[in-house]
Design goal:
The chain is of the alpha/beta class and 333 residues long. The protein folds into two domains: 243 residues, Rossmann fold, CATH 3.40.50; 70 residues, no CATH class. An eight-stranded mixed sheet has the order 1-2-4-3-5-6-7-8, with helices on both faces. Helix 12 runs antiparallel to helix 13 and helix 13 packs across helix 14.
């Protein structure tokens, strides 16, 4: 138990798991409601404005990703004054649990979502699946799903061997196949890295008229973390809520990675694996012109030396080829 009052501005970073749960419950109950959904899921609601964010998060993820160990959606409560409904799971469950279904049934029956002018569903990975799947409860909602799985039903996605422990879980009943659940959404956005094959294969299953695929090429398997590091998480959700998230506006968000060292190092490694020396040199010139980056400086010098040697060798070969021709011309003359 925690003995002091906590608010949205209180950091939960140093709390134990039980203290953390007590703090989250206290904030939710003071500003809305808290409800346990069986043994593995929780619902926390904060009522503020007529814009509602519905996020699907893991407790471990909240405590690791947020600087204050808060649900990520609380950032939008503080900065934008949005209302927030957080569905939290104990581990990666894909929110496939009867108490979660019953909770959304009750929200539908009570007309809960009708009380908001704008509703945005959000999640990443298993949470991205859930955001898409449960968005059917709020027709006309916007959906932002980062690296979502379409389903883990092995009859459909047996090629995905990352989550074999989930293959006995039912993905065929209510709220089951996430792409079909998007039919009632006003717009959905699936964010993924096309160079991650399994993520790209799942993304292909979300092909729908109201779905826009947003690619973060060469950003890897932790795109939610990367967006947080780029300080673009809030911008992404705001654009979605405002109806301004497009391929073009997302490209502007993604431009922030040009100053993101982990991305630049990953890009350098990828270009080197592919032996694309001209592009590697272009990248090194860009990076060294914008920031202090010893690794890129060393690689730039190495590539320039290799290029100079190659040119010298080619020129030498050309001169050797020209010499016999010139000698023959003199003899003939």
């Amino acid at each position: 138990m925690i003995d002091t009052a906590v608010t949205l501005d209180t950091s939960f970073e140093d709390y134990s798991k039980s203290e953390w749960m007590d703090a989250v419950k206290q904030v939710a109950q003071n500003g809305g409601f808290y409800e346990a959904l069986g043994s593995r899921h929780h619902a926390m609601f904060l009522e503020k404005s007529s814009t509602l964010l519905v996020s699907f998060e893991t407790i471990n993820g909240m405590r690791a990703l947020s600087s204050m160990a808060h649900p990520l959606g609380w950032e939008m409560v503080r900065s934008e004054g949005w209302s927030h409904l957080c569905l939290a799971s104990e581990g990666d469950t894909w929110f496939r649990d009867a108490p979660v279904y019953a909770f959304f049934d009750r929200l539908i029956d009570d007309g809960f979502f009708d009380g908001f002018d704008r509703v945005v569903f959000y999640g990443a990975g298993p949470g991205g699946y859930a955001a898409a799947a449960f968005s059917v409860a709020a027709p006309g909602a916007k959906v932002v799903a980062i690296q979502p799985q379409a389903t883990l039903d092995p009859s459909v996605t047996e090629w995905d061997d990352r989550f074999v422990e989930m293959r006995r879980t039912d993905f065929t009943s209510r709220f089951g196949y996430a792409p079909d659940m998007l039919d009632a959404a006003e717009a959905a956005f699936v964010i993924y890295d096309p160079t991650v094959p399994l993520d790209a294969m799942h993304a292909s299953l979300f092909t729908r008229p109201n779905v826009t695929k947003l690619r973060m090429r060469r950003m890897g398997t932790a795109l939610q973390s990367k967006l947080l590091e780029l300080d673009q998480f809030e911008n992404l959700l705001t654009l979605a809520a405002d109806g301004e998230l497009t391929i073009a506006s997302f490209a502007r968000i993604a431009r922030a990675r040009r100053d993101h060292r982990p991305y630049l190092k990953g890009l350098l490694a990828a270009l080197e694996r592919e032996q694309r020396d001209p592009l590697t040199l272009t990248l090194c010139n860009f990076v060294t012109g914008h920031m202090s980056a010893p690794r890129f400086v060393r690689r730039k010098k190495q590539l320039e030396a290799e290029l100079a040697l190659r040119v010298a060798q080619e020129n030498g070969t050309a001169e050797e080829q020209d010499t016999p021709s010139q000698d023959a011309a003199k003899t003939t003359g």
